[in-house]
């Protein structure tokens, strides 16, 4: 009865402390073979597998290299490359002109001209009044500056991709990067090439941007209209194009050149050329130090060849040709005389 009562009490709320162990034993069932079979375990949540994969990937990478100058500059190059091609490749602008003819019915006070990357301005067409009846003329802007703009954006895109790939290699494949010194050598050559390309591309785009500003200047565009050549008509610029983002792209281009050129030294330190140069300098210093050691400055002047370490005159023959008695004991000499 006591046992049954305890079992009943274990099912209630106020169960004794030992009831938890009895419940755990009760969850096991006898197997047909005669052994004990544990209760089935709960399945893990579905998101645990993905989290474990992310944890393993994070543990495999050495993120502390991002704090070093080589990887840190690569991250900056990645960001600045994004700003460079985004400010140039995503540009779109326009200007607005007004032509007030002597005959007001022929005037057009809102002539909108839109242009965008890659700045093939000779393909940008617009209609303008001639102030000679209802006839209108179709004009186009002057110039094609797509080569310098596309070259600049192409360099920025490839620099973005390479910086991203190099950063991933630094973090997750550091051992393979340093294996056989092949990775640092390739990285050094690519860094030098991109430094040169950034300098050339930024300079070319700076010159192309100045030409774009001249070609899209409202005063220059008004000179293309035949109606503006007559003094009776009034031609005025209403809105000029905003070039602030394009100016920013040039700034980011030269900043990328500074970053890539400055990173050449840190990539060079990873190559075998830098380590061989250090070994050569160390060998030269060792040769110089060994030359000084072999010279007379490092000889022991107080050694056996010196005069100070020679045996004293007390053990040598005196001036009268007899050995000195200072090296013998006093009492023995006195006993011999007796």
Structure overview:
By secondary structure, the chain is mostly helical. Helix content is 53%, strand content 11%. The chain has helices at residues 2-11, 19-26, 47-60, 69-89, 146-172, 174-178, 182-215, 218-222, 244-268, 272-294, 330-337, and strands spanning 29-30, 36-37, 92-100, 108-116, 125-129, 136-140, 234-239. A three-stranded antiparallel sheet has the order 4-3-7. The protein has a two-stranded antiparallel sheet with strand order 1-2. A two-stranded antiparallel ribbon has the order 5-6. Strand 3 and strand 4 (108-116) form a beta hairpin. The longest helix has 34 residues, at 182-215. Residues 1-8, 26-41 and 295-338 have low confidence and may be disordered.
Supply the key terms.
338 residues; two-stranded antiparallel sheet; 11 helices; rod-shaped; disordered C terminus
At a glance:
The chain is mainly α and 338 residues long.
Q: Could you give the count of β-strands?
A: 7
Shape: rod-shaped
> What would the average pLDDT be, to the nearest integer?
76
Total helical elements: 11
Estimated helix fraction: 40-55%
Radius of gyration, CA atoms, in whole angstroms? 46 Å
Structural class: mainly alpha
Q: H/E element string?
A: HHEEHHEEEEHHHHEHHH
Q: How can the largest sheet be summarized?
A: 3 strands, antiparallel
Q: pLDDT under 50 segments (min length 5)? A: 1-8, 26-41, 295-338
The largest beta-sheet arranges its strands as 4-3-7
End-to-end CA span: 126 Å
Q: Tell me the β content.
A: 5-15%
């Amino acid at each position: 009865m006591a046992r049954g009562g305890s079992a009943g009490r274990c099912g209630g709320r106020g169960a004794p402390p030992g009831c938890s162990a009895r419940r755990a034993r009760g969850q096991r069932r006898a197997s047909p073979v005669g052994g004990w079979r544990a209760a089935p375990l709960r399945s893990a949540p579905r998101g645990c597998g993905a989290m474990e994969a992310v944890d393993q990937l994070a543990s495999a990478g050495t993120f502390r290299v991002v704090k070093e100058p080589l990887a840190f500059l690569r991250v900056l190059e990645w960001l600045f490359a994004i700003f460079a091609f985004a400010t140039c490749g995503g540009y779109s602008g326009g200007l607005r002109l007004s032509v007030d003819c002597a005959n007001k019915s022929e005037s057009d006070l809102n002539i909108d001209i839109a242009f965008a990357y890659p700045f093939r301005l000779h393909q940008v067409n617009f209609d303008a009044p001639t102030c000679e009846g209802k006839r209108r003329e179709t004009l186009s802007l002057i110039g094609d500056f797509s080569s310098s703009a596309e070259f600049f954006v192409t360099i920025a895109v490839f620099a973005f991709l390479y910086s991203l790939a190099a950063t991933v290699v630094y973090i997750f494949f550091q051992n393979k990067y340093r294996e056989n010194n092949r990775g640092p050598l390739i990285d050094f050559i690519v860094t030098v090439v991109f430094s040169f390309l950034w300098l050339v591309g930024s300079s070319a785009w700076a010159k192309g941007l100045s030409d774009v500003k001249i070609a899209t200047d409202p005063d220059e565009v008004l000179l293309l209209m035949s109606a503006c050549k007559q003094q009776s008509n009034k031609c005025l610029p209403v809105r000029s194009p905003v070039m602030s983002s394009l100016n920013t792209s040039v700034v980011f281009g030269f900043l990328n050149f500074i970053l890539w050129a400055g990173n050449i030294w840190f990539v060079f330190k990873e190559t075998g050329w830098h380590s061989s140069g250090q070994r050569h300098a160390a060998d030269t210093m060792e040769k110089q130090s060994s030359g000084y050691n072999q010279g007379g400055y490092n000889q022991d002047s107080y050694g056996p060849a010196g005069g100070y370490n020679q045996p004293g005159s007390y053990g040598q023959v005196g001036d009268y040709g007899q050995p000195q008695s200072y090296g013998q004991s006093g009492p023995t000499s006195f006993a011999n005389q007796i």
